[in-house]
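notes to self, project folder thing:

trying the whole complex as one job this time. last attempt i did each chain seperately and stitching them together was a nightmare. two parts in total, labels are on each line so i dont mix them up again. if this works i'll redo the older ones the same way
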Amino acid sequence: MNKDFKQTSRSGSVSWLLQRISAVILFVLMMLHFVTYHFLGKGKPVNYHWVMSKVGNWWFPLLQFAFLITALYHGLNGLWSVLEDYTTSKFWRLVWYSLLLTVGMILLFVGVLTIIKLYTLKIA
Amino acid sequence: MYKRTRFYDFTYYNFIGTWAWVLHRLAGLALIFYLSLHIWVINSLTYGEKTFNDVMIFLSSPLFKLLEVGLWGVILFHAFNGVRIVIVDFFKGSLAQKKWFVLLIAIAFVLWALGSYLILSHVF
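result (full assembly):
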């Protein structure tokens, strides 16, 4: 093996596999999401009372959390694999990777906060 | 040093697969951008009914409904081309990947037309 390729010794095959597994999960969840939120209501905008009537169910926050974490992982991992293709310098890879990780953490925090707040609002 | 990939290095004969790859990436970039906005907007549910309904009225203008139709199309392209990627990678689909592309995009197009009809039927 050429020594120039040493830095690619971690081949990324695990994230390749996880990208496909998360894709299959997302395909199912996304179709269910569109059918239940948008098409069963014949395309009318989602209204507050309809959402609030659902959030009290125990499975609702779990499903939303699963959707959130799979979508964020798939999206940011996908973005990372695009950036990896165009960024050869170790420095910029580290910069981009840290940026994606930070953005991911912030979005996860906002998403989880929404799920927990809605659930406790309904339960209280 | 290995040659850096340039975005114009598309000198492949197999142009359906290449353009599917390009569009899949562009769609993915658009979707991770949208996911960030979506998580932020849905957080407004926690500020109560008035805030959420104001946001939904703002997002129900014809401009946003047209963007929603575009979003549904981008999601369907990414999802159904993603199915083709999984078939190619795990089920020896590379032998017939162009046929898979045509079949899956045809299904996606029908779903896009149905969904778009429902979304736009409340605008005009």
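what i see at first glance: The CA atoms of residues 95 and 101 of chain A lie 10 Å apart.
need to look closer tmrw
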